[in-house]
Amino acid sequence: MAKLDRKVMKFGGTSLSDEKVRRSAYRHILEEVKHAKVLVVVSAMGRYPDPYATDTLLSMGSPLLTKEEKARLVSMGEQLSALIVASELLDIGISAYALPFHKNGILSDHQYEYANVLALSARCVQQALSQHQVVVASGFIAQAPCGDVTTLGRGGSDFSAVLFAHMLGLDEVDIYTDVDGVYDIDPKVSSFAIRYERLSYDEMLNMKVRVLHERCVQYAKEKKIRIRLRGTFSQGEGTLIA
């Protein structure tokens, strides 16, 4: 059974791009903290050419940087995002804490751009949750045994969210995007798009619309973690992937 006093919520870059947009994310968080301690997983803020987006940061570095250096560079987007979100939650009266990446308990190999997860440790996350209403964790980032920063690949914050859910013994995670669920075609380009209320893991993996990181869905399937894909700017239930 899931622990009812813990919740994992993940917000993507378009849900965090500026202060006005982030207020919509905070409304969802404020609802959850009424009855649970919340682990919020964040992506880097915005999309290229926004100043802190992953591709923007990558464009600032030389192509001659090593893969290890590039991982450190792009990880700064998620780390900054976690600190900004925690700061703004503190300003509205929520006991929030930005978890340092080296305490997130996601241990990986040395594949810096697409790391393989070797082990999970919930100790630091649990300790932080015991002391705060909301703990904000950087998605996308893992740590190699030597302490190096590694990354989980593009869209890896989705994968981080299900890793944290499994780490905390939960059987469901909420992933928020700028679209209120999974559609058969892009609803931004067609008014005839149909939203699915429920999909199986395999149906999600076989869809041409790549809304979620593939390893996120594969891991959720393996660990039987339900994913609810919801809209940051909507109050709807979104799409359940189970």
From TrEMBL:
<protein>
    <recommendedName>
        <fullName>aspartate kinase</fullName>
        <ecNumber>2.7.2.4</ecNumber>
    </recommendedName>
</protein>
<keyword id="KW-0547">Nucleotide-binding</keyword>
<keyword id="KW-0418">Kinase</keyword>
<dbReference type="InterPro" id="IPR018042">
    <property type="entry name" value="Aspartate_kinase_CS"/>
</dbReference>
<comment type="similarity">
    <text>Belongs to the aspartokinase family.</text>
</comment>
<dbReference type="Pfam" id="PF00696">
    <property type="entry name" value="AA_kinase"/>
</dbReference>
<dbReference type="GO" id="GO:0016301">
    <property type="term" value="F:kinase activity"/>
</dbReference>
<dbReference type="InterPro" id="IPR001048">
    <property type="entry name" value="Asp/Glu/Uridylate_kinase"/>
</dbReference>
<dbReference type="InterPro" id="IPR036393">
    <property type="entry name" value="AceGlu_kinase-like_sf"/>
</dbReference>
<feature type="domain" description="Aspartate/glutamate/uridylate kinase">
    <location>
        <begin position="6"/>
        <end position="229"/>
    </location>
</feature>
<keyword id="KW-0067">ATP-binding</keyword>
<keyword id="KW-0808">Transferase</keyword>
